[in-house]
Amino acid sequence: MTGNQAGDTLVKGSTNTDYPWDEFDPYAYWQHNYGVLREDDRKMVEQARDFFAGIRDVYDAEGLDVGTGPNLYPALAMLPLCGKITLWEHSRANVEWLEREVLNHSPTWDPFWNVLTEKSRYQKVGDSRSAIARRAVVRKGSIFDLPRAKWDVGTMFFVAESITTAKLEFERAIRSFLDALKPGAPFVIALMENSEGYRVGTHFFPAIRVDKDVVRRKLISYAPDVVVRHIDSDGLLREGYSGMILAHGRLRK
Ligand SMILES: C[S@@+](CC[C@H](N)C(=O)[O-])C[C@H]1O[C@@H](n2cnc3c(N)ncnc32)[C@H](O)[C@@H]1O
User: Fold this and answer.
1) Which ligand 1 atom sits nearest the alpha carbon of residue 88?
2) Which fold has domain 16-250?
3) What is the per-residue pLDDT for 141?
4) By alpha-carbon position, which residue is closest to atom 13 of ligand 1?
5) Which of 60, 138, 191, 207 has its CA 20 to 30 A from that of 165?
6) Between helices 167-179 and 212-219, what is the axis angle to 10°?
7) What tens digit of pLDDT does each residue of 130-182 get?
8) What digits encode the pLDDT tens for the residues 22-78?
9) Which pLDDT score is estimated for 239?
10) How many angstroms is it from 46 CA to the middle of ligand 1?
11) What average pLDDT does range 188-201 have in this prediction?
């Protein structure tokens, strides 16, 4: 993701449907964001790993990653807990990219998997390529159309705050994701902190500024034990944000 610059296709509007999601460029985004493992993403992966590795009562479960885009590491992080993982993505271009990527994923995900397999729970998965190819299912759909109480485990990385500038829509996105999970489900949510929006290829996409306290206030009634942390950015991704936020917890039973 890079900041808005002169020459971008600026799309005016503030709600999710105002932006050209089908024209999201998965290759540009994937190369820029995940071509190499940055330090800030390493910390996100480590914290998601340590949280999921500590969940002992969920296995062979159904996982959900919402707004997957060109990012496989949330799905990789859920592998020890899941027999099936639904990748729920809105953009046609990202859906097509994902359908190819899950069949035999790129070596750029290997450094992410190496961080995950520092924990024995992940080593037991075996080969991540064949595990993703067998267990991941790509679905085209909006976060706002998710069925309720269907999945046992969930992840949502850089979505609720990065698909709109409208506060009510951000809140609706958080609710839709959490409502799609069953009571007691473990989840990890990642957000850009104080993001001003981002450019992918020639298009500019929206964001709403959120910080750790806002995120905690939104999640606490769903998950009283939620842990919300700020993660320093290494500054290599782009300008126009002040770090990342990672939240994990289990839904109230
Ligand atoms: C900033 S990207 C994050 C992608 C990826 N999860 C990551 O970690 O890098 C936002 C993603 O949300 C998707 N998206 C936009 N509107 C959506 C909606 N209404 N429902 C579900 N996903 C949506 C976009 O297509 C894009 O893949």
Assistant:
1) 21
2) Rossmann fold (3.40.50)
3) 98
4) 67
5) 138
6) 50
7) 999 999 999 999 999 999 999 999 999 999 999 999 999 999 999 999 999 99
8) 999 999 999 999 999 999 999 999 999 999 999 999 999 999 999 999 999 999 999
9) 83
10) 22
11) 96
Closest Cα to atom 10, ligand 1: which residue?
159
Give the span between the Cα atoms of 157 and 248, in whole angstroms: 12
Task: Read off the pLDDT of each residue in 231-253 and give the average, rounded to a whole number.
Answer: 91
Distance 89 CA to ligand 1 centre (A): 7
Report which ligand 1 atom has the smallest distance to the Cα of 33. Answer: 9
Give the strand order in the sheet containing 61-66: 136-140, 82-89, 61-66, 153-157, 186-193, 243-250, 227-231
Which of 21, 31, 73, 85 for a ligand 1 pocket mutation test, highest count of atoms within 8 Å of Cβ? 21
Ligand 1 site-directed mutation target among 163, 187, 192, most atoms within 8 Å of CB? 163
Q: What is the mean pLDDT of the chain?
A: 94
How many angstroms is it from 72 CA to the middle of ligand 1? 12
Of the candidates 31, 29, 95, 37, which has an alpha carbon nearest to the alpha carbon of residue 234?
37
What pLDDT score was predicted for residue 193?
96
Residues within a 6 A CB radius of ligand 1: 16, 21, 24, 33, 66-69, 71, 89-91, 94, 142-144, 157-159, 162-163
